[in-house]
Design a protein that fits this description.
- With about 150 residues, the chain is α+β, with helices and mostly antiparallel strands.
- The radius of gyration is 18 Å and the shape is elongated.
Length: about 150
């Protein structure tokens, strides 16, 4: 009986782990706040959708945005909680490299943009790091590059 309970808990945990690895991340908004010699500061909002039946306590999340394979910049999100089968939108300040941004800002062609990162999840007795990748649509990429 105890082995069956341990097996059921283990199976449930594994299924939830697999669900978490399919976390959906999206850029829902990005606005240029300020442009300086150091870079262009964006105020972004990232949406995280939790497909799991468990509430996720998300630790620090580091992310990088790249354009055509070049790192545009990086950012960090503070810890938060994503409800079970729900979503949350988090503010993410982001400092972009002007040299790379300018290369594509004045171009009519929409570049390939990629958001990658690693999210740390804290469970009852363990922590796991889950990588994520998001490719914005051409409209989303264009709006991001132009800060609109």
């Amino acid at each position: 009986m105890i082995i069956a309970i341990i097996g059921a808990v283990g199976a449930f945990g594994y299924i939830q782990y697999v669900s978490v690895t399919h976390l959906h991340v999206a850029i829902v908004d990005s606005k240029i706040v300020e442009r300086t010699n150091d870079g262009t500061l964006y105020n972004m909002q990232l949406e995280f959708k939790n497909p799991s039946l468990m509430i996720l306590n998300v630790g620090k999340t580091d992310f990088v945005i790249s354009v055509e394979g070049q790192d545009l910049g990086s950012g960090t999100l503070e810890p938060s909680t994503i409800p079970a089968m729900g979503n949350t939108v988090e503010k993410a300040p982001f400092l972009a490299d002007n040299a790379i941004l300018d290369k594509y800002n004045k171009n009519d062609n929409v570049p390939s943009v990629k958001l990658t990162g690693t999210t740390k999840y804290d469970f009852l007795v363990a922590s796991i790091n889950i990588p994520f990748t998001y490719y914005p649509t051409q409209d989303e990429a264009s709006a991001f590059i132009h800060g609109t």
